Amino acid sequence: MSATFVGMPPFPTAARQALADTQLRHNLAHATGTIRAKRAKVVGEVEHWEDLRLAGAAVKARALADLETNLVRLEESLTAQGATVHWARDAAEACEVVARVARSHDVDEVVKVKSMATQEIELNEALQAQGIAAWETDLAELIVQLGDDLPSHILVPAIHRNRAEIREIFRSKMAGSGRPAPDDLTDEPAVLAGAARQHLREKFLRAKVAVSGANFAVAETGTLVVVESEGNGRMCLTLPEVLVSVVGIEKVVPTFAELDPLLRLLPRSSTGERMNPYTSMWTGVTPGDGPQEVHVVLVDNGRTRALADEVGRQALRCIRCSACLNVCPVYERTGGHAYGSVYPGPIGAILNPLMRGQGDPQVDSLPYASSLCGACFEVCPVRIDIPEVLVHLRSKVVDAHRDDRVPKAEAVAMKSTAWAFTDAKRLAAGERLSGLAGRVLTRVGKARLPGGRATAGRLPGPGAAWTGARDMPAPPRESFRAWWRRTDGGRSEGSGQSEQKGGE
Known about the structure:
Elements: H1 11-19, H2 22-44, H3 49-65, H4 67-80, E1 84-88, H5 91-104, E2 109-112, H6 116-120, H7 123-129, E3 133-136, H8 139-146, H9 163-173, H10 189-206, E4 209-212, E5 216-218, E6 223-228, H11 232-238, E7 242-248, E8 252-253, H12 259-270, E9 278-282, E10 293-299, H13 303-307, H14 323-327, H15 329-334, H16 345-356, H17 361-365, H18 375-379, H19 386-400, H20 409-421, H21 424-444, H22 463-467, H23 480-487, H24 495-503
Parallel strand pairs: 1-10, 2-3, 2-4, 4-7, 5-8, 7-10
Antiparallel strand pairs: 5-6, 6-9
């Protein structure tokens, strides 16, 4: 796959383009609605779901609170079980480790388990640059790869594609990378899955090196865990001679027992299943069983930067279930590509700025890609308060521009408002001017709000962006101060009305 998110425009620009694609919006609404309904049904079956959320959040919080100790223990456990541990500070170091292992075995291809970490570091592109093909084996990832596309969802990377589009991708692209699609291919899901199965089988059987991620890494035992629904992960983790697992350092869990709440939370939150079909666990090397050479690449790539943020570090609790994407009204209308990262949706809007830092216009736009409705927090299985982090990151974006030589329009408006509101005379003068504007708008304005009140119409200059999608009421013709003076505090409005107010 040659496409990358590099050079993506800021979220407002990308979102505007996505909103114009009616087919995309239809695909997203159908898919997210289906997943939401499945999740709600199976979560409703758990009597103490909130207690389970609290337990899962506590496990991840404990792991992050003593991350250094847990990682050292993980390395010791992995090494004792025959695995080789590599530390990677950034994407380049991680990619080079994987490429070095592949080159040492003289291979020109690897098979891959679906992995957000390898997408994050752009491993496929790095290997391709060294003449090594990385074949995605997850069905949705295969669709994205064959279509030279980009993933748009954490759990369902091809959620933006419908069945007809997938059929066309298979028919036109499969032959270029292996077994072609059958001539009688239809767009029935079972038929499409069967074509993918046949296409991938030859890759599984000849692969010498596989690459995976991990949902969890247990420090106590050195056990890595992959949770999946298709069985392709099991094939990659058992058939090849060499396995390289690329794992973000935040995936560590202190003890094996602490997997319990996480493995109960994840399937229900992600695919809406009571239990996922495949949970694969491997602990180093077992003679005669599975890969006989295991490498684990522990990747930072901005995670310690996120950990240093006292408010934002809770984002590292994320178990990549994608529940927040499926309930987000913004994601449902724009899709994942608009976020410009392999981590889209509400969690991507906080993870990307926390891990990558501020200063880039595209990254700085992400904390504003939210209505702050709070639905993401309500469904998060590990209770990440995404709205709180979004507001926190917005404040950091604003603070970063306080000393700009040319202030932003918002900063000018806020300073002007502060100047007016901190002096009674200035505020009174502003009220008189707004009253005059209200009288003019009442006379000339044709659009009216419920109750007959006139609107201000479309404001000029910077205000045009605000009123382009909102009804702004016209300022009242009379200010509160003027009304108070005219009515003597409301007493001259009528004795009956005054008595009623007093009775209330």
